[in-house]
Specification:
595 residues; alpha/beta; Pectate Lyase C-like; serine acetyltransferase, domain 1; 28-stranded mixed β-sheet; 17 helices; 31% helix; 25% strand; flat; DUF4214 domain-containing protein; PBS_linker_sf; DUF4214; Pectin_lyase_fold/virulence
Length: 595
């Protein structure tokens, strides 16, 4: 058997590096022959089974390999299937209506990367069923599917689900679908049936058609007696930076067919929901979309080039759509959706105008110009923007910035704009210190938007508050930002720069372990080129350690002892620095920042 060490690695959603330093085998070593039209399925599975419980990577070179869908490529835990970009899995025709070309069942830490699945729908025998899927993930955790082209399967391009709905332990979790092209599948391009913590990003989906629901992305857990039990509700789903083209010429189905995305349409009342915490951002849907049954659904920075059917009070932030249906029950007694003008009866435009006018007066100190008043009123009334969007638009405007207000004035303006009152002493002190440490107004927007006071203010004007997600790392955790700000001041002896502050905050926010924070505090700053360029002698070096890690100036005996150890060569600088960094005093400093 040929084996080599793996040069590249893939990181699964739970942080496990499943391929690095693992054994690497090729399907060619197990009898697969590209382009010879013979069945290669057994060779693929033999290569996978050669890893008896160990981590491994199965590589597939360029070429066309024939796969029997009735057997499928059966991946198991800790396996990476790494296919060349020009690998093609040609799926043999079958009469079976239930199969998976690639199956991940009862496994974890699995990666599928590269290659094309050329499905068998054009060669399928018969016209029954809809369960033939390209990639079928069943009751598995931490599965990454990336850089794949998946097309023309009898059912879904990718199916995420369970073999049984009987217990909460079933279902899939931690699924990442990244940079895939998924097209022309007969049912839907991606179906989420029983899965939590799913992220779909950077994908292109198109032309799902053939049998209902025919969606780009469909969230559709199996119901029971007209309800969806909580353990089947799909939770924490993210769809990011993805484009979906619907099947040409088919629009206005009202029930989710031929949609860019849809949450299942069957529930008869709003107490039934199929998904919770659905986030869609940076997407383009070239067709209709519908949220019929997802609670806590937020769509941001997205273009829906069709009608958006909203039954669950979706939060829309900077969303462009051709039309919006918003209704407590979109179904008439005959089961047909209303086909009159879109309805927005819950909006009182006079109240919306009053809200817009008030913000101009509070933040800019003037009445709104006609065009600004009309634009914001229309956006709020149509649901294309929520209250927090106009707050950000006005307080984040050049006009406001050019006023060069102090941090104290900015905090007071945010309180008045979003909470309708002056700042209380504790809140004023806290937010002012956050701004001085390097946070921006975005942190205040995010902090206020979920408050009861902002919600009540918005309700008094008949508009939705919305949600706000910060863009910069420095705005995500006040303690981390203040901690990094202090490192700049004490270790480098200067104020932060924005780029550096964001970089270090991002590194700490990604891993709040003590070891990582120590690494940033020591190696990150004291091994930096900027610090090395100071060319400090041993005495000055130890003085900086006192200020950074003990939070005080040196004492003469201590300084003499540490400098003596350096001058004699008893310890090097890293050894001395570790003595300071792992002191109880620095632990107390970290605790002050919640670290």
């Amino acid at each position: 058997m040929m084996s080599i060490s793996v040069a590249a690695s893939f990181v699964t959603p739970n942080g496990t590096c499943v391929a690095s330093a693992a054994e690497n085998v090729s399907v060619l070593d197990f009898g697969a022959v590209p382009g010879d039209a013979t069945d290669d399925t057994a060779a693929f599975n033999s290569a996978i089974e050669s890893f008896d419980g160990s981590t491994g990577t199965v590589t597939v070179p360029s070429g066309t390999f024939n796969i029997n869908p009735n057997v499928g490529i059966r991946l198991k835990s800790n396996i990476t299937l790494s296919m060349d970009a020009s690998t093609v899995l040609e799926v043999n025709g079958t009469s079976s209506s239930e199969y998976g070309v690639i199956i991940v069942r009862n496994a974890q830490d699995v990666v599928i990367n590269g290659g094309t699945i050329n499905g068998e729908r054009a060669r399928h025998n018969g016209d029954n069923g809809e369960g033939g899927h390209g990639v079928k993930v069943i009751d598995s955790n931490y599965v990454t599917i990336s850089n794949m082209n998946i097309n023309s399967n009898w059912g879904d391009g990718i199916y995420l689900g369970t073999a049984s709905d009987s217990d909460e332990i079933y279902g899939s979790n931690g699924i990442t679908i990244n940079s895939c092209k998924i097209t022309d599948n007969r049912r839907s391009n991606i179906s989420i049936v029983d899965a939590n913590d799913v992220t779909i990003s950077g994908c292109y989906l198109a032309n799902a058609y053939g049998t209902a629901p025919q969606c780009g992305i469909n969230i559709e857990p199996n119901g029971k007696d007209g309800k969806v039990p909580d353990d089947r509700v799909c939770k924490r789903i993210k769809i990011l930076d993805t484009t979906v083209d619907v099947h040409d010429g088919i629009m206005d189905d009202y029930y989710g067919q031929y949609f860019g995305f849809s949450t299942h349409y069957y529930p008869s009342d709003k107490s039934v929901y199929t998904a919770y915490d659905l986030q869609i951002s940076g997407c383009t849907f070239n067709g209709d979309c519908g949220n019929y049954s997802a609670k806590k659904c937020v769509i941001s920075n997205t273009n829906i080039k069709g009608t958006f059917y909203d039954r669950y009070e979706t939060t829309l932030n900077n969303v462009s759509c051709g039309d919006i249906w918003q209704d407590s029950n979109p179904y008439a007694s005959d089961g047909v959706a209303p086909q009159e003008d879109p309805i927005h009866q819950w909006i009182d435009e006079e109240k919306v105008e009053a809200f817009v006018t008030r913000l101009y007066e509070v933040a800019l100190g003037r009445e709104p110009e006609d065009t600004g008043l009309e634009d914001w009123t229309n956006r709020l009334s149509s649901g294309q923007a929520q209250a927090v969007n106009i707050v950000q638009g006005i307080l984040g405007s050049d006009e406001y910035s050019n006023k060069n207000k102090s941090n104290e004035d900015i905090v007071n303006d945010c309180y008045n704009a979003m909470l309708g009152r002056s700042a209380d002493p504790e809140g004023f002190s806290n937010w002012t210190s956050n701004l001085e440490a390097g946070m921006t107004m975005e942190a205040i927007f995010a902090g206020f938007v979920g408050s009861q006071e902002f919600d009540s203010l918005c309700k008094s004007y008949g508009i939705k508050p919305g949600t706000y997600v910060v863009n910069e790392a420095r705005d995500k955790n006040a303690g981390v930002t203040k901690f990094v700000n202090r490192l700049y001041t004490q270790a480098l002896g200067r104020p932060y720069d924005v780029g550096g502050l964001n970089d270090w905050c991002s590194q700490i926010n990604a891993n709040l372990s003590r070891d990582n924070i120590m690494n940033v505090s020591t190696n990150g700053f004291f091994h930096s080129q900027e610090f090395n360029n100071k060319n400090l002698n041993n005495e000055e070096y130890v003085k900086v350690l006192y200020r950074t890690f003990l939070g005080r100036e040196y004492d003469a005996p201590g300084l003499a002892d540490w400098v003596g150890q350096l001058d004699s060569g008893e310890k090097d600088r890293d050894g001395v620095m570790r003595g300071f960094a792992y002191s109880p005093e620095f632990g107390e400093i970290m605790a002050q920042y919640g670290l």
